[in-house]
Write a structure and sequence with these properties.
This protein has six helices and eleven strands. The protein is an alpha/beta fold and 181 residues long. It has one domain: Rossmann fold, CATH 3.40.50. InterPro entries: Class_I_gatase-like, DJ-1, DJ-1/PfpI, Prot/Nucl_acid_deglycase.
Length: 181
């Protein structure tokens, strides 16, 4: 079974995290939510507490087909402060597996140099943090194994792009039809 990990940091954007998890699971992808703190309960940007499946120190990261970062503030900044997470993203990227981020979170990928020379998108105002990227402003950008999304209102586009990349276009189309998109 294909696997994905969605990382949660305090201040994450709830729609982006949970919408992505929902879409991936509808696509038959095994999704694990991972708190980057030592606590399983992570509070979103709009004060919604979510219980993660695992903590970062308690999960095998190199078995995932995709590592995914939801945005939100200060969630994206908190993700960016996690050295173990950043090392996992670099390893995932080097091995040709998917790294993905939406909203403010592409700044993590930009800071790691993973967006250099690539088309990428993000929440308006975070463009300078996408170091070396060609920032397009599109809903979703796919560049090899790097996927970026613009923001919460476009989580369906982001999630479906992930399903297509992890599985295939047919599964993504089936999920979209079930969502009446």
């Amino acid at each position: 079974m294909k696997k994905a990990i969605v990382f949660l940091a305090n201040g994450f954007e709830e729609m982006e995290a949970l919408g992505t998890v929902d879409i991936l699971r509808r696509g038959g992808i095994e999704v694990t939510t991972v708190s980057i703190t030592t606590d399983l309960v992570v509070t979103g940007a709009h004060n919604v507490p979510v219980t993660a499946d695992k903590t970062l120190d308690n999960v095998v990261l190199n078995e995932a087909d995709a590592l995914i970062l939801p945005g939100g503030m200060p969630g994206a900044s908190n993700l960016n402060s996690s050295e173990p997470l950043k090392e996992a993203l670099l390893q995932q990227y080097r091995e040709g597996r998917i790294v993905a981020a939406i909203c403010a979170a592409p700044m993590v990928l930009g800071g790691l140099g993973l967006l250099k020379g690539r088309n990428a998108t993000c929440y308006p105002g975070f463009e300078p943090k996408l170091i070396g990227a060609n920032v397009t402003g599109e809903a979703v950008e796919i560049s090899d194994n790097v996927i970026t999304g613009k923001g919460p209102g476009l989580v369906m586009n982001f999630g479906l792009a992930l399903v297509a990349a992890i599985k295939n276009d047919a599964v993504a189309e089936e999920v979209a039809a079930g969502l009446l998109l």
